[in-house]
Amino acid sequence: MPRSGFTIGEVSQQTGFSPKAIRIYERKGLLAPAHRTSSGYRIFQARDIDVLLFIRQAKSIGLRLDEIKDVLELQRSGQKPCETVLTLLGAHIAEIDRAVDDLIALRATLTNACEQARASLDCGEGGVICEIIEGQSTVVRHPPTEICRTTVG
Fold it and tell me: pLDDT for 14-51, tens place per residue?
């Protein structure tokens, strides 16, 4: 009797997911349990490939597996998950905005540290080990020199 469906290797080739990833998605409930042959091999259907392609696309726009599972469960229960997806994407955009703000602040801090370190080196000052890092410490052992006096001779 011919089998109807696809082996895990065939599904892997069609979706680009490794067999291990497909088994993980099945175990985590993102993919319905596959039918098994009498010898225990998984047999997948075309709808399983569609779900895996959906998972790939959802991951490519930044959704996490737990979020993808929630979306799939809504769809499986007959609901339209688009509002949920919009909420998830909005949350991800907010996370990215916070990360960008943090990176901008870090860049400003590093730029300031470089400028201060260059000024200290130009004045002949230096730290015990490295002025750049020591200058960033919240523990001030001695007041920093703000004005560099050079002698003209």
Answer: 999 999 999 999 999 999 999 999 899 999 999 999 99
* Range(s) of the domain holding residue 55: 8-79
Residue that terminates a domain, selected from 79, 109, 141: 79
Instruction: Please report whether residue 130 resides in a domain.
Output: yes
The first and second tokens of residue 137, run together, are 């410490």
For residue 26, being part of any structural domain is answered with: yes
Cα 109-114-120 angle, rounded to 5 deg: 125
Sign of the alpha-carbon torsion through 12, 56, 73, 26? positive
User: Using CB atoms within 10 A of its CB, is residue 135 exposed (0-12), middle (13-18) or buried (19+)?
Assistant: middle
End-to-end CA distance of the chain: 101
14 and 63 co-located in one domain: yes
**How many angstroms separate the CA atoms of 6 and 53, rounded?**
15
Least reliable range by pLDDT among 40-49, 98-107, 139-148: 139-148
- Within a domain: residue 121? yes
State which amino acid sits at residue 82: C
